[in-house]
Amino acid sequence: MTFQSFVLANRFENRLEASGQLSRARTYPDLTIEDWRDEIDRIDEQLVKLLNQRSKCAIELGRIKRELGLAIYSPEREAQVIEHVTGVNGGPLESAAMRRLFERIIDESRRIERVVMEREEREAASRRPRTRKSKAGRRH
User: Does the pTM exceed 0.90?
Assistant: First the structure.
């Protein structure tokens, strides 16, 4: 069985299971450990792309927060994110596991916001004309 046929079969089974027509999980004896590892690698590649897209969004949010004078850390918003992802979680990961994963994702998002905002502020400061003060305290 190829993974394409596996994916199609899995989608079909998901529909049957959702409708109550499938009472037990199916196994795929034709698939090898290498097949499963290849599939996990493909999923990991998708996760990397999605996490980087999410990070780009966090950076843009950081810029907006800076313009509005808001703090990067927003515990209320983070609680909303955790509530949302645990609410849409259909398993097999438990809600507690999903919460822990997203706490790390949020931590890294907050970190990248800070790093980029600090770098941009340093770059902006280095482009500003510097004024020198004389010994008398007057600007030149």
Answer: no
